[in-house]
UniProtKB/TrEMBL annotation:
Record's protein name: Histidine kinase
Origin species: Christiangramia lutea
Keyword Transmembrane: yes
Pfam families noted in UniProt: His_kinase (PF06580)
Coiled-coil annotated spans: 146-173
GO cellular component, one term: membrane
GO molecular function list: phosphorelay sensor kinase activity
Keyword terms: Coiled coil, Kinase, Membrane, Transferase, Transmembrane, Transmembrane helix
The keyword Oxidoreductase is assigned to this record: no
The Signal transduction histidine kinase internal region domain, residue ranges: 166-244
Length: 359
């Protein structure tokens, strides 16, 4: 099948080139016309210059241009071009003499002044060579541009697939990390047969629904994310009881505000996991405001002086930073401050545009 296709393509190219050279022959016939000669005589005379025209043209478009000009070997291209012109000019001159002798005999002096007509012949031949070479360069530039565009699209497609795979991997990291800590909370209460355990299981089921189904969407409503943050905090309140002090300061949220799912909730989860007070009490403050086109989310939790920066950040924040890089590149600022008694995180997020859809 491939061989048949190759032969078909070769036949098509031969037919096309034959047609083009037939047009060139007719052009020569028109350009070389002289007084007293009929059409068949001029056609025969013009045919003497067709081989040298074809040879010179093919030398340029198939050898000199691709091997030297395109590769920017300008000196070699110039030298070989000069040599080609000198050789072809010699052949053109010889063809003119033989053409005159073969078609007009020896009576060309009166009707065909060679010194004048030879200039026209050279101009005609090199005009064809120049046009063919220019067309070859344009075709090459178009082909190169198309190939570059195709390579660019393939590269972008490969990058997109890599980001999609990475984002899926990051989401997979969030789910077990978040569930592990939540299940530990319920397990601790179940050991003491706490009456709040069934309610916590119900709340966890709602969180599971959010994690398993809502996170498959590219965006969710901000109010839904906040609702699950409140749900999660209620779960943690049942675990810490009087040892937990939570302050929530959240602006009223318009229903049309959207963001990537599970983007704020892991910040809260990270604070509960690593937060700890020196006096045995755990304090956490969450503030969320909408400032023009910016969402500002601040969370601060008490920590023990024994906890270092690496432990307080953990895998959760590293994960979130990478997700923000993928989904909100150049549209967010994340500030993390750790001192001996508090751990602070502030996220400023541009919410006017939807996150990059790679999931």
């Amino acid at each position: 099948m491939k061989i048949a296709g190759a032969f078909l393509e070769l036949g098509r190219r031969i037919l096309l080139h034959s047609l083009l050279w037939l047009i060139v022959l007719l052009f020569f016939t028109f350009f070389f016309g002289f007084q007293g000669a009929d059409f068949s005589t001029i056609l025969t005379f013009s045919a003497f210059f067709l081989p040298v025209t074809i040879g010179t043209t093919y030398v340029f478009i198939y050898r000199l241009i691709p091997a030297y000009l395109i590769l920017k070997k300008y000196l070699k291209f110039f030298l070989y071009s000069v040599a080609t012109f000198l050789i072809s000019a010699t052949y053109i001159t010889l063809s003119a003499f033989y053409g005159i002798i073969m078609t007009l005999g020896y009576g060309y002096q009166e009707n065909f002044p060679l010194t004048k007509s030879l200039i026209y012949i050279l101009i005609s031949v090199y005009l064809v060579v120049t046009i063919a070479s220019a067309f070859s360069l344009l075709k090459y530039n178009y082909s190169t541009s198309a190939k570059n565009e195709e390579l660019k699209n393939r590269f972008l497609e490969a990058q997109l697939k890599l980001k999609e795979q990475e984002l899926q991997y990051l989401k997979m990291q969030i789910h077990p990390h978040f569930l592990f800590n939540t299940l530990n909370t319920i397990y601790g209460l179940s050991l003491s047969k706490n009456a709040a355990t069934p309610e916590m299981i119900l709340q966890l089921s709602e969180l599971l629904d959010y994690i398993l189904y809502q996170t498959k969407k590219p965006v969710v409503k901000l109010e839904d994310e906040v609702g699950h943050i409140r749900n999660y905090i209620d779960l943690e309140k049942k675990r810490f009881r009087e040892n937990l002090d939570v302050q929530l300061n959240i602006d009223e949220i318009p229903s049309n505000i959207e963001l990537a799912p599970m983007l704020l909730l892991p910040f809260v989860e990270n604070s509960f996991k690593h937060g700890k007070g020196n006096d045995g009490k755990f304090k956490i403050s969450i503030c969320m405001k909408l400032i023009d086109e910016m969402l500002r989310f601040k969370i601060e939790n008490s920590i023990s002086g024994e906890i270092d920066k690496k432990e307080s950040e953990g895998i959760g924040l590293k994960n979130l930073k990478r997700r923000l890089d993928i989904l909100y590149e150049n549209r967010y600022n994340l500030h993390i401050k750790n001192n001996k008694s508090t751990f602070k995180v502030q996220l400023d997020l541009n919410i006017t545009k939807k996150p990059t859809d790679v999931s």
